[in-house]
Structures
1.
Amino acid sequence: MEPTHLFELVIAMFLAIIALQYAAHRLGLPPSVALLTGGALLAFVPGLPAISVDPELVLVIFLPPLLMDGAWAIALARLRRHMIGIASLAVGAVLFTCAVVAVVAHLIFPSLPWAACAALGAIVAPPDAVSARAVLERVRLPRRLQILLEGESLLNDASGLVLFRFAVAAAATGAFSAGEAVGSFLVLALGGAVVGVVVGTAWVKLVRRLGDEYLIIAATVLLGWISYLLGELLHVSGVIATVTTGLIASWHQHTVFSAATRMRGTSFWTVMIFLMEASVFTLIGLSLRDVVERGGGLTTVIATMGLPMLAILVTLVVARFAWIFASDLVIRFCAALGVTRAQPLGAGGATVLSWAGVRGVITLALALSLPEGFPGRDFILATSFAVILGTVLVQGTTLGRVIAWARLVETETERARLTMSQAEAAMAQAQFGTVQSLAYDAEGKLIHPQLLERYQRRATAIVDYAERTAHYIPVLHAHFDVILEAVATGRRELIRLHRAGDIDDETLDELERDLDLEELSAISAKA
């Protein structure tokens, strides 16, 4: 394909993404479902060239920034608090699911070598970070379940990749060592963490010295790729390196970013991540044509592989349910004996956590990276795609209903000690204390009376609001509605002045930015 044609295809894909995202919004569907289905339909449009996805390139382009974004947004304190549960899902559940799928695959196809069955298990075992984000952003979960799913999706790719590499190597050599596999995983994980710490620390020092906000944003955008590529170059886990770097950067960004850098960087980053997430699902859909052609056509694939693929998909779901419910039973037993203070999830929470195991780009990339001539390659590739379709289209669309059925409630231990209103009151009191100390000159003369009065009035009002929030909410909504109307009126007048030639572009930009900040502040306060 000519480079210009490839670029035209990319632009067409972005336009399709916008249309599919809009359609999903109008129809009330998860965007991932619309994008995956739309990409699959587009794959069979007459005249459209077949899309052949390079798995290594997909991982390098999409995985680092998406992992970085997940690590950036995760709650670090809750991540530490629930690390045992996350490790159980990211390592234990992946190992268990891989083993169960391998056994079922060998029962279905006794002629398929155990190493190939294990490779299939490793490919489909880890739920995907991108798919998990796409599902979770449309539902509300208790904080404990949210952090378990987010943490699992960030860390389980490393487990799946290690298992996959050992399974492929075992298929090629006919030898496998469990001890070597465990040792290799520990080296990869610890090495990746070290690389992540080094890169994250270097980023913090660099950002403090750059000074220019656009250079800071550019350095931050490149951070995930740098960490991932350096980790892979040193033969350790690029996934763990990227996640570790993201956690360090997230922790320090509150102190090293200016307000302008944070606002502009967040806007750019949000759009970039949106396009990348949407592109992943669209590319998965577009890859369907290649998968079907490899299997001899859609009719042949369904006739010869339909039931085995369904059996693997059901096995995958059942294995996750079995692991999570068994783990919850162990927690309940240990809590009854007083061994741990951890509370079990309960049937509802365990069901939601089990049903949220959606697969995506990692599964597809690993399947496509199988070498030509690998035993059962066509079956593994078709099954991997069926697993992605089944989990995204079925679990992704019904997770909201499962959550509603479970009637989950937030536990007291997961609630923050202060509400947002109480935190605002504490912040306002601290600000008033600073203004009060600086409002007088060396002789004790009041030199900033208006500032002092303003911050005192604000601190008093916010404390009163925190104590009587329910009483003030209707009044505040009406208050900020008026502010938003005033901002809209000011914006119309500003544009009229510019169109009439009474003000120049620089004045328009400056005053429009002030209006934008005022509007965002009012919308945030009203929410």
Note: The two ends are 49 Å apart (CA to CA).
2.
Amino acid sequence: MDLVPALEEPLKQPLKSVLGPATAKVMAEHLGLHTVGDLLHHYPRRYEERGQLTHLADLPMDEHVTVVAQVADARLHSFASAKAPRGKGQRLEVTITDGSGRLQLVFFGNGVHKPHKDLLPGTRAMFSGKVSLFNRRLQLAHPAYELLRGDSEESVETWAGALIPIYPATAKLESWKIGKAVQTVLPSAQEALDPLPDSLREGRGLVPLPEALLKIHRPQTKADVAGARDRLKWDEAFVLQVALARRRHTDAQLPAVARRPKPDGLLTAFDDRLPFTLTEGQRKVSGEIFDDLATEHPMHRLLQGEVGSGKTLVALRAMLATVDAGGQAAMLAPTEVLAQQHHRSIVEMMGELAEGGMLGGTEHATKVVLLTGSMGVAARRQAMLDLVTGEAGVVIGTHALIEDKVQFHDLGLVVVDEQHRFGVEQRDALRGKGKQPPHLLVMTATPIPRTVAMTVFGDLETSVLDQLPAGRSPIASHVVPAADKPHFLARAWERVREEVQGGHQAYVVCPRIGDEEDDPKKSGKKKSPEDEAEKRPPLAVLDVADHLANGPLHGLRVEVLHGRMHPDDKDAVMRRFAAGDTDVLVATTVIEVGVNVPNATAMVIMDADRFGVSQLHQLRGRVGRGSAPGLCLLVTEMPEASAARQRLGAVASTLDGFELSRLDLEQRREGDVLGQAQSGARTSLRVLAVIEDEEIIAEAREEATAVVAADPELTGLPGLRTALDALLDAEREQYLEMG
């Protein structure tokens, strides 16, 4: 982060290495540490206490102890084992004594050579390890030890009482080697430039940066660790929030055309035809959006709302307001299924108002066009003509909208649905299609905890829709433990039959399609321990549909839907399901976002443990969209005590998406809050936890906004500028530029 010349010194360079060339190479390749500053910011994950010095006579079981003792004898034994069948296994047994008692130490395998040389009878040393019982005798297996040369009482006390830093390490480089490397570069910490303004640091009682770096790596007490972590958390939160505040400040300087709806225009005509009144939340959020649209710099707003809270309606009203004001509005959807569905539902909601230029269209009507990659040439050409002439006020499409050939007459508003599915470049390309930067509204149905919104989407203002419209039904969710209780799964299929007999429909969701390669080597993905424990591949749509149609759901109309089908086929399947001509739709997560069939009341999610918490919540939101109550069954073969089962239990126990998103985040950790979506880089947050440190992030945002307002170029804060440059390497800078 705060890298200055001494801290910018490479760990590995041709003529002189700060560290040995082999160590520097491993650090660069496996830990991404290239400079002295990188290494100083590689903080310990936790600290071991060697424990107070313990007499051998009163050793506690299962505790980490440190003893000072003399080697009485050391013997090397050979033995046969599965790994060394010819009796070539080696075990070193060392007996130590401190006058109060005796204790056995044991070392195995390749680990015997060094202690065999070091621990000769008569040698005095400190030993540190966990006490265990073997053959009814206490022992320490593979203890750490430090030989005592010259009987310095002081070295005994400091060594025993110290907190031992445990670093994030790799198989190629153990934590204690990283610790030694840090020790080598620690003097450079004195030259670290402080990114925090003095007034902020002093006002909040934070220690200076060089002191924080010394104390995080070499703490004397737990208070040292706490003080250092508080300080370093502030660095991370503040520098990140300054980056975002500068982004907002720059955006505020950009010109945009203010879009105010006409008093009795298209928006009024649309509102008059709505068969229901808007919820309080929809009115409030629409107000925030209309205020932004009326300004002469681009709106950057994130609209987050639970599944079914009516975000599409709010976005449509913003689009119609833009058309009213003489501009065009584009909605970008992540999949063709969703783009087609949005187009269908928007045209239905608008009725004759969507028939601009056609017979039957009213005076305020505009044209609503769809543009996707798989449309026929003639339909595509017509849609593009409608856009360039301005005939079409509203366009809904996939990333086909971004292609160079697509030109707009006057693009005023871009609505991005499910932001996390679009690359930065794609959003940027669409924004570049306006004569001036268009207003931007980003929608997500994944509830985002407030602090994450302040970090990941910190350059956007946030609106939240947390009220469900009247008429939405509650969804009951249950975990179905298929391995422990197979009869529960049989009952699940009976429930699906009952829903269909009651005139309703059901979804069955599977993690996989079923026609892909099953060779695990080809997937290239590292398996989680839970996947390893369960060798079978995830259930697939094609297999499950076949099994259900010929087995538990025999006689019902079962169809499949997945991402590799031809777009026309997908659309036909969705139309049949929406019309009620299909009883059960067996699908992948293509139905996760936006699919709206009010008559579908039941969902069975197979291998539910293979999905993330937020994804399960999204999927579940597809049922209970009408007046009949919804049912969601989470099928898993995971054992009751597993983390996966607990996660599913949490999903079943609450319908509060914000609560679940916190849980999801706690389990996945934050990723790289700036670059993860684009680069998969290592996290830029080392000590700051987005969930736990909510207060620090909120305060840092306020401080950052004030600092940037007073000095946008940060001319008076060279340390902060340096820290920003280090945080915003070219890739992340671009990410913020486009976000």
Note: Residues 517-534, 669-683, 733-739 have pLDDT under 50 and may be disordered.
3.
Amino acid sequence: MDPVPALQEPLKKVLGPATAKVMAEHLGLHTVGDLLHHYPRRYEERGQLTHLADLPMDEHVTVVAQVADARLHTFASAKAPRGKGQRLEVTITDGSGRLQLVFFGNGVHKPHKELLPGTRAMFAGKVSLFNRRLQLAHPAYELLRGDSEEAVETWAGALIPLYPATAKLESWKIGKAVQTVLPSAQEALDPLPGTLREGRGLLPLPEALLKIHRPHTKADVADARARLKWDEAFVLQVALARRRHAETQLPAVPRVPGPNGILAAFDDRLPFTLTEGQRKVTQEIFADLATAHPMHRLLQGEVGSGKTLVALRAMLAVVDAGGQAAMLAPTEVLAQQHHRSVTEMMGELAEGGMLGGAEHATKVVLLTGSMGTAARRQALLDLATGEAGIVIGTHALIEDKVQFHDLGLVVVDEQHRFGVEQRDALRGKAHSQGERRSPHLLVMTATPIPRTVAMTVFGDLETSVLDQLPAGRSPIASHVVPAADKPHFLARAWERVREEVASGHQAYVVCPRIGDEEDDPGKSGKKKPPQDEADKRPPLAVLDVADQLARGPLTGLKVEVLHGRMHPDDKDAVMRRFAAGETDVLVATTVIEVGVNVPNATAMVIMDADRFGVSQLHQLRGRVGRGSAPGLCLLVTEMPEASPARQRLGAVASTLDGFELSRIDLEQRREGDVLGQAQSGARSSLRVLAVIEDEEVIAEARQEAAAVVAADPELQHLPGLRTALDALLDEEREQYLEKG
């Protein structure tokens, strides 16, 4: 018997095909249960108006406001040359601010009749900036007359729920759809164990669903949210606890380095001593490597805190103990770079089997998708025979053809690009004396992650943090360059780049786009409405900017470009020339974001900096100031001073503390995006849980989950929880849990 037929009912059957199609395509909602879990983002109180003063730019908003005045203008245009074009401008207000609405062409007639001064309505649309004023172009609206039966019924509660909506489906239409399926909430299966729910005084699930969609008071909303937060935190933590439990059941080969092997020889070569932090983290890692269960550790470290050195020492410890270590990088450029820096750090210790190799030496091989056949064949052979103790590569390492002699440790650089499928594939390659044993796993990330996010996204990993920068690192000065308000600041930025080059240094210029895309918005033939053109130019592109700089402000300097669509050999050649100091200025996309290490590069200019996220800007900035000369990072933007984008850039300029920035980043993004779903476009499974604010809920849920899983790993006695887990771990979520 199917336990949740009502909630699994497809929306097509309940709402009709047209609405269901939009919900599936734009909101990822397919079943009645999905829609019931699509919670209001906030609530409007009848009689209390939204704050128009703090509307976010470029976002879809729903506001409740009153029409202050409406004017019809005529103008001449290509379509209406004799001054017959019509534009209706409506100003709405809510006491805190005013907002302009515009309607064009034939779209003016209905609003002209209906939106009379004094009328109250809900308006939905995308906020844009036109002539430095906020406006909504062609918003959808629903009059709040308060007399028609339907309006009274739909907005019957004192609180009007406003749903996360899309251009294709306004909040009030989603509200009506929810009204239709709400009776099914009675059949929702409760995932929380009864004892836990009663012990914490939480509402039953059907009641919580009812109260979140149709609250009568603010207390209803608070109770419902408290309960639904627990659901999310608990189910997620049970999933992670089960994975941790499964991992502890796996066998692994303990790897303990000998007293005078390659690790000792390497340490003797080091020209500096390890920082306190590096020593502490190394102890944690070595303790894990010595156990008979696989290590699963996340190594977080600020850009430049020496993570690579810590990882390399762990790899050498495993080689000492007779195993092999593999390091996985997200891109070929990075794999080549890691290979270069590891062989440089190891010197003759990396020349195993060669003349001039040291006595404890091993081979360090590179394996990437674009290698020539002969080089690739040799690398595969070295891995299979165990000749190569260390291999560095891209995901090409995971292919079936790659066989290891005895894989003991996998180091993954930048976890957010590496999923569970890949982890499992590598695990399958670890054979030891004919048995399958899991390799130890060390994940490195330079994106600082607040504790709760680590508990949520990387909840199946133990965490180590490197928070000291090695001695000799220079401070980086960061400044926002407001190109639109103060064009002379931009001119000064290019002068600063010339000054850095004149004193023997190099610079990066980063742009959001490459510039040879087919999908260039200007070429698509679609004319945008006139009011959009000023605000929405395409992001600046590497190829155009490099060209303009070489001909203009940076004439006479050696300028080269680097982007993801270049042939790997060309990329490597460009990077080599830059690293060797033959190129003055490298104009690049974010391919340089992780791991690129050129100590002589001291300046970075980030164009259209508002188009990058906070942690991305922090990552990019970490590429300068890696030597003894101070670094300079200039964030160029055309956004107006009051915009949230400018505040974000101001925050980045004001602190070099990545943990502080990651907090700001999370507070500014909507919580669901914390788990990286913003990039993939799939729906986030965090709907009411705010990773930063709900630190306590997450920590408590983690404890409860661990206890539940320890007592009943298969969840035999909790069918509701099993169902919720299956829903969470369907494919899309499985990926989200992994890729973080």
Note: The two ends are 35 Å apart (CA to CA).
4.
Amino acid sequence: MKTLSLRSLLLCFALLSISWVQAQELTQTIRGRILDRESQTPLVGATVVVLDTNPPQAATTDADGYFKLTKVAVGRHTLKISFIGYEEQTIPELLLGSGKELVLNVGLAEAYTSLGDVRVVAEREKGTARNEMATVSARSISVEESKRYAASISDPARTAQTLAGVVASGDDLGNEIVVRGNSPRGLLWRIEGVEVPNPNHFSAEGASGGAVSVLSSNVLSNSDFFTGAFPAEYGNALSGVFDVRLRSGNNEKREYAFQAGVLGVDFAVEGPLRQGGKGSYLANYRYSSLALLKDIGIDVTGGGGVPKYQDLSFKLNMPGRHGTLVLWGVGGLSTSNSHAVTDTTLWKRYYDRFESVSGSDMGVAGLTYTYPLSEQAYLETSLSASASRQTFQSNAFETEGRVTDADQKFVSTALRASVLYNHKLSSRHTVRAGFIASRLGFDARSGFRDDNYGGQFVQFLDQRGTANTWQGYGQWKYRATEQLTISSGLHALYFALNGHSAVEPRVGARWAFSPTKSFSAGLGLHSRHEAPFIYYTRIPLGEGAYSEPNKNLDLARAAHVVLGYDQLLREDLRLRVEPYFQHLYRVGISPNPNSAMSALNYGGGTATDSLVARGRGRNYGLDVTLEKFFTGQYYYQVTGSLYDSRYRAADGQWRGTRYNGHYVLNVLGGREFKVGRQRNNLIGLNLRLLWAGGNRYTPVDLEKSREAGYQINAQGQEWAEQGPSYSRLDVRLSYRKNNPRASHIISLDVQNATNHLNLYGRFYDRYSEQVETAYQTGLLPFLNYRVEF
């Protein structure tokens, strides 16, 4: 984008803020439900107060825990919720627009002891995880944050990349998450409490991210993100957990949202299943903008490949006399292709001669029934089905003609059934137990030309089958004193494909030794199995024979230890410090005693090596967060991490992993300006500065590469080189215009606003016979218009 164009857009924002005014004060409704956080029973008579209206507006909950506040002025508000015998909770940063009602579901924690009519004040901190068993390394990510942060573009994964201990995987175009130096493959994705395939478009097999999230902000609720020592209910995860929740639709009023921008065209609808009932529906559909333009005859790529994707999300919430039934689903389809340079005189790089087409699809649907056994206990049962498919085909134009270079297809399916029992024994004791049974299916083939086998096409995988996993867990939350809370539990995982199992104790504690300061700690064992087809990787033996050496590969294991210190420096400013240590063991490595190959360096894709579970790894570091909440119309957040991530393979040497960047610093902040005659409209300016250790890569042995005719890496120097420091400035400018019946939002996100070229890696090019440098994406603008009505 040229500077003049950017200035023109900024001028448009300014003119809109001056010319769009209103002569009346606009209002909207805030309503929702207040529940006991542990037992999920409604709290009758709880008080909800909007603190920043004059005079303050208040409401109390009815017999089912519902409240409603009408005619609240649009803008940002802070709610305070209180109930006798329960800890008071304050919710800041709530943005109320004229186009949609604000519907909340809030859980209050019962006070340590019953104090009769004395009200306990212990405000719940912003960003506290929804999961009440969490004590450390956990944070709730709000939908509003994912919309507001610069270049997060309503993607919860990109929002998570701003947190302490988290960094992107080294590709500006992707949203993959590296947690505390671990491979992104160790991340567990859950939706509505169910393990799901990677919910991202344009993803590779085995990866946990992609270019565009399948999850739409129109259907998301606040979600929990864990960076270590997670509670016992989370299994099959090594590095982190993203526990995503979908919100319920408006059960009183039909509402719509439409948006169009660079990323896609969305339409969302929600409303009551029937008038006067408590049930609701919510659905969102999106189609890629570039593909839509090409479909109508407008090709903005100049004949290049057009990324095409679409996704659908929905949730039906059906409360009844004896419980609540929820039907939900998320799915997405995506394809992309690249064209070869067919004129050989124009070839400048070796890869100019390649053409490819790839596809990435995923879908999951679930049915959940929550049955209240009593006022203190409930039973939640869930059934789900999911599937994912990744395909990749590549052809090369050679002197002998068109040659197949790669042909891959990975199809994975899962049927899951789970039961969760939760019982709040008293204000001091809560227990939770559950069981998960999974039936995994796979149909996979993977073949490509491999230089290690003379440039011949090798079929490394061609297998279909099934595998079962069984998981069980138990947790106990104990408030030993008014200041000390202990959460302990046990998780067990059994992988029936080869009979390996793991028993994983977990424990965490939080000691609030003053009203504004607390210490926390967590430790536990964690394990994860690979995708089932990894165990069927084939290794050529010659003359058409293959071996399958990975069938008995053990579960990879990790021990997490985390300490934490939190201090509320003032009511809207918090400091958090977390040192941690992780010991990884039984990691897949090559059995070759001279090899430095380890699964800890895998990103996406499947194995092409024999693997034995003898590898080691260790991660340790310090995460620091200084966060100023959104008060006084501005906020800021500074997160920093110093860390070291190392591994040991069969050759016995300790090396830095592929993801060992050593440091990352995020500085983000923003300011909102009220404009218009009644100051009902908002201009937002948000910035993010990212500074991190550069990408790591293995140096190329140039002489040997020239002799062999293909890339040969320097032996014994795996991931030894690191590029220059990575830096990027992101900018977001937005304007919200509130009308009596609709809200209009226009926004511009600019990723890498300074057009700084960061190093991606270095590789040997067979055409030039030189080591070439690949750079990451430069300036990337995202313009978007949205209307809510």
Note: The radius of gyration is 27 Å.
